[in-house]
């Protein structure tokens, strides 16, 4: 069997044509394709506004800036995520407070969030992470946020196309802006759609949208309505200390093409997940089943086993390259120096000791998946 990775991008002839057409156009950096991508993406997730940026990390950083994170403020997030979810707070001078996860969902524990906020009046916001594609119940988190005057920045990098249905039978799509102030996405090659590197911020708040547009481009505006003076048609002003976090037209063209297949690929991910679920039911493998009315996006398919290292090595010996998501952020040397230590979050740390991400991507063939399943199950023997 050929090498089977845990994740894999897929580029079609249509994708290549879209990029080549842009190469032959008048714009390579930021041009009409970026705006088209933003509009189509906002429509897909159901948000009013979208701002394309150079990476998911850039999306987090700009969002933290736009929300006013600064020195002396505290922000809560999960330790089970990529480090960027926490680092964006540090970039702005803020303090990260980690909150343990629910062991059944591996999502931030909302009850624990409220307990933290009660003892920390300087907490200004929450960054919940839709880990592996499992949407956080933002209805419950919004109640806590509103009660204590906090904002919500939804890290939806794993969950494009995912949603949950609330008690009033209303669908809340990840990133639709109905419950979070801002949401961010990543277009890294192993995500649902790829632009090489790239990210998107979505929101329903016009004030944040306009601030993000400025921060994305050095803090510069060309909107004459915002000028303090005007010297002519060439004139622009820098109002904030911003960054060059722009996406290029080349990347946007690829993103538009990939987005046209997002639903098809999401259906395939759910088919693969269902086959895994059926195969591992009743075995030594622990599975994370979504709750009723939760529609998982399955960026990752994560299992938990007691002998994770041995299984990881056994799979590699069979040319199956699984991965671990994630090493708890609070155990990274940088965050240990800030005072966090092993034992702080038993649910997150216990999960890390057992977790393994199996191959999950739309072009994973039935034959390849059967080989993965067979290999995982035969390991028990």
Low-confidence stretches: none
Count of DSSP-assigned helices: 13
Architecture (CATH level 2) name of the largest domain: 3-Layer(aba) Sandwich
User: CATH superfamily of the largest domain, called what?
Assistant: Type I PLP-dependent aspartate aminotransferase-like (Major domain)
Number of domains: 2
- What is the overall pLDDT average? 97
Total E-strand runs: 17
CATH fold descriptor of the largest domain: Aspartate Aminotransferase, domain 2
Counting helices, strands and paired strands, the structural category is alpha/beta
With strands numbered from the N-terminus, the spatial order across the biggest sheet is: 2-10-9-6-5-3-4
Strand content: 15-25%
> What is the helix content?
25-40%
Outline type = globular
Kindly provide the radius of gyration, computed on alpha-carbon positions and rounded to a whole number of angstroms.
21 Å
Largest sheet: 7 strands, mixed
Main CATH class of the largest domain: Alpha Beta
Query: End-to-end span in angstroms?
Result: 21 Å
H/E topology pattern: EHHEHEHEHEHEEEEEHEEHHEEEHEHHEH
């Amino acid at each position: 069997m050929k090498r089977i990775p845990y994740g894999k991008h897929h580029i079609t002839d249509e994708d290549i044509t879209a990029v080549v057409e842009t190469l032959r156009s008048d714009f390579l950096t930021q041009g009409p394709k970026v705006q088209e991508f933003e509009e189509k993406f906002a429509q897909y997730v159901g948000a009013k506004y979208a701002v394309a940026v150079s990476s998911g990390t850039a999306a987090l950083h700009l969002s933290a800036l736009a929300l006013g994170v600064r020195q002396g403020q505290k922000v809560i997030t999960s330790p089970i995520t990529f480090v960027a979810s926490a680092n964006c707070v540090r970039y702005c001078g803020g303090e990260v407070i980690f909150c343990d996860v629910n062991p059944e969902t591996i999502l931030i524990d909302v009850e624990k969030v409220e307990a933290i906020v009660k003892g920390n009046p300087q907490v200004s916001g929450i960054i919940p992470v839709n880990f592996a594609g499992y949407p956080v119940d933002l209805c419950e988190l919004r109640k806590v946020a509103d009660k204590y005057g906090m904002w919500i920045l939804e890290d939806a990098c794993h969950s494009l196309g995912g949603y949950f249905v609330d008690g009033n039978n209303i669908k809340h799509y990840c990133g639709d802006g109905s419950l979070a102030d801002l949401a961010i996405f990543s277009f890294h090659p192993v995500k649902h759609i790829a632009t090489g590197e790239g990210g998107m911020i979505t929101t329903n708040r016009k004030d944040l949208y306009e601030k993000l547009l400025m921060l994305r481009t050095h803090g510069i505006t060309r909107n004459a309505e915002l000028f303090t003076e005007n010297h002519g048609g060439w004139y622009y002003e820098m109002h904030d200390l911003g960054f060059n976090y722009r996406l290029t037209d080349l990347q946007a063209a690829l993103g538009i093409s990939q987005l046209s297949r997002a639903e098809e690929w999401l259906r395939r991910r759910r088919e693969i997940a269902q086959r895994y679920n059926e195969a591992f039911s009743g075995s030594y493998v622990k599975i994370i089943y979504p709750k009723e009315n939760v529609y998982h996006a399955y960026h990752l398919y994560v299992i938990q086993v007691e002998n994770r290292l041995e299984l990881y090595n056994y799979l590699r010996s069979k040319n199956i390259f699984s991965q671990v998501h994630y090493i708890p952020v609070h155990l990274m040397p940088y965050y240990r120096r800030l005072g966090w230590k092993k034992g702080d979050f038993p649910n997150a740390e216990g999960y890390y000791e057992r977790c393994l991400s199996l191959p999950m991507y739309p072009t994973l063939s039935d034959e390849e998946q059967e080989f993965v399943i067979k290999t995982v199950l035969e390991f028990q023997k």
